[in-house]
Design brief:
Elements: H1 2-16, H2 23-31, E1 49-53, E2 59-62, H3 70-76, H4 91-102, E3 107-112, H5 117-125, E4 141-145, H6 151-161, E5 166-169, E6 174-178, E7 184-187
Parallel strand pairs: 1-3, 5-7
Antiparallel strand pairs: 1-2, 3-4, 4-6, 5-6
């Protein structure tokens, strides 16, 4: 009996031709909302920009033509201390990816995204260079670096974007970008 079922299934697949897909696969493809159709055979796949969160050890692959969902961005940029996420400004991922494209890199190191107000206060009390009402606490800032790119060059590029505030931290080797008022500063 089992042999007959297997033979019947293989005959059905052969009759359907090379385009045959099991019902489960057809349903899964139909439910996909984020990913378009797979590229045609022989076409080069889109180049991903890989964001690495240095505190959570999370990776987020970003296809610039098909950006991640807001929820994925929020989780990726969550506060590492409280593990809480906040609605983040989507322009931040766009800016980090634009920097990667500008400097021909497929990796961006994210140093900080959302910072819970309690964690921000704790850092201030310990003497760290964080603003009392930091844009990080509002979900409007990201600190990042690109491997192999001098911090000064990344800083100059970030200022040219006129997105908002830009800070350079030479000792720590990262750049801060936010969507607040345009202003510039230097820290450690």
């Amino acid at each position: 009996m089992k042999l007959a079922v297997v033979a019947l299934l293989s005959m059905t697949a052969a009759a359907a031709g090379d385009d045959y897909k099991p019902k489960k696969d057809r349903e899964r493809l139909g439910k996909s909302t984020r990913h378009g159709a797979p590229p045609a055979a022989g076409t080069k796949p889109a180049k991903l920009i890989n964001l690495y969160n240095q505190w959570t050890n999370d990776w987020l692959g970003v296809d610039p033509a098909n950006p991640p969902s807001v929820a994925e961005i929020d989780i990726f940029l969550r506060d590492h201390f409280t593990n809480e996420a906040m609605k983040m400004e989507p322009k931040l991922i766009d800016a980090t990816c634009a920097a990667a494209v500008q400097f021909k890199s497929d990796i961006v190191w994210v140093v900080s995204g959302f910072r819970h107000p309690k964690y921000n206060l704790m850092l201030r009390k310990k003497g760290h260079q964080v603003a009392r009402d930091s844009q990080h606490t509002h979900g409007n800032a990201v600190d990042f670096a690109i491997p192999g790119v001098p911090t000064e060059k990344l800083h100059e590029w970030a200022k040219e974007q006129k997105l908002g505030g830009v800070g350079i931290y030479l000792t720590s080797k990262f750049v801060h970008m936010d969507t607040g008022p345009i202003r510039f500063w230097a820290g450690d």
